[in-house]
Amino acid sequence: MTETLSIARLGHRGDGVADTPSGPVYTPYTLPGEVVEAERSGDRGRLLHVLASSPDRIAPICPHFGTCGGCALQHWRAEPYRAWKRGLVVTALDQAGIEAEVAELIDAHGAGRRRAVLHAKRSGRKILVVGFTGLRSHVVVAIDRCPVLAPALERALPIAWRLVEPLALAGKPIDIQFTATESGLDVDLRGTGPLRASTIAALARIAGEEKLARLTRHG
């Protein structure tokens, strides 16, 4: 059902919340003060069009934003975002009956994320897809880069492609967990199932060529 919604505030997961006669409706990628057209299903909305935009809406830094489910608020200016994040702590303490002074937000982003979990799956006609999952979905969204990762993880995507190509992927996605360490990239494959000796040898060769600090399966 398509419905016009007036976004009053953000929920704790970053979804815009519209108060309707039948209860709140949560719509991702919307901002307070906006009027949007959304496809509604129960208390969830899927954004179709922004009819009246917030002055705090900005262009996201990633071309995959809105398709990939990794980030929720790249479309929001930094100042209101920081105030909202601080407000989450204030509200949580208040609900717990704790009186405490809450300082301003401290940016801990640094050079970017040092950990990332990529997913790989073969879809129709055995096409291999590597990327992140969509928002509240198990669908793997192919990406070519991720601007929020630390420079040490710039090679994560091509390495993930190389590692999963020798694997006989079934219908379920596998996880490729990357951690940037002082010794190099630490990589763990999860969901591969038993591996043949030839596959293990191929993975070991790739790990050596890519100079990985460590390559493990299920830790």
3D structure, described in words:
The protein is an alpha+beta fold and 219 residues long. The protein has two domains: 2-55, Beta Barrel (OB fold (Dihydrolipoamide Acetyltransferase, E2P)); 115-217, OB fold (Dihydrolipoamide Acetyltransferase, E2P) (Beta Barrel), CATH 2.40.50. 18% of the residues lie in helices and 32% in strands. The protein is globular and about 60 Å long. The termini are far apart. The mean pLDDT is 93.
Layout of secondary structure:
Layout: E1 2-6, E2 9-10, E3 16-20, E4 23-27, E5 35-41, E6 44-52, H1 78-95, E7 115-122, E8 128-133, E9 140-142, H2 156-164, E10 174-181, E11 184-190, H3 197-209, E12 214-217
Parallel strand pairs: 11-12
Antiparallel strand pairs: 1-5, 2-3, 3-4, 5-6, 7-8, 7-10, 8-9, 10-11
Quickly describe the structure.
With 219 residues, this protein is of the alpha+beta class.
What attributes characterize this protein structure?
219 residues, alpha+beta, OB fold (Dihydrolipoamide Acetyltransferase, E2P), 2 domains, 3-stranded antiparallel β-sheet
CATH topology of the largest domain, by name, is OB fold (Dihydrolipoamide Acetyltransferase, E2P)
- What is the end-to-end distance? 45 Å
Order of strands across the main sheet: 9-8-7-10-11-12
Shape call: globular
Strand runs, count: 12
The radius of gyration over CA amounts to 21 Å
What is the oligomer described by this structure? single chain
Q: Helical residue percent?
A: 10-25%
What's the SSE pattern?
EEEEEEHEEEHEEHE
* CATH architecture classification name of the largest domain: Beta Barrel
**What structural class is derived from the secondary structure elements?**
alpha+beta
Strand fraction: 25-35%
Query: Which residues form runs of ≥5 with pLDDT under 50?
Result: none
**CATH class annotation of the largest domain:** Mainly Beta
Overall pLDDT score: 93
How many distinct domains?
A: 2
Largest sheet: 6 strands, mixed
How many helix segments? 3
